[in-house]
Amino acid sequence: MKKLSRRLFLGNSAKFSIAGFFGLMPATDRGKHSKKGKLVHHVFFWLKNPASAADKAKLIEGLSTLKAIKAVQMLRIGEPASTNRDVIDRGYQVSELMFFDSLEDQEVYQKHPIHLKFVENYAHLWEKVVVYDSVDV
User: Fold this and answer.
1) Strands lying side by side in the sheet with 39-47
2) pLDDT grade, residue 5 (50/70/90)?
């Protein structure tokens, strides 16, 4: 039986638990298991009233309704972290991170009645939205 060093054990444990959490494979296995076409949809919202806790809560409430759309594989809603480096933009108030199995699923989401209702009911809260869409390589 091979003796496993603590550093190797912890490194491998972290790599696989983080990969499992995000549904990812270790970098060495990506070529064997990745599916091209998976799409990540990351949206950043700047509120018209950035100091309003009520407006922020209302937007988060609206974003939560998007979980009901079957094409959405995972939805995460966040706010700026307390990290502080020159490359970090912390000017937004709320972010939404979604995962889709394909570009087609993301297009279904864009036209879905729940998404359209979200835009109709909550667009008055934001002054700016920035979207980053990316596909697996």
Assistant:
1) 74-78, 94-100, 39-47, 126-135
2) low
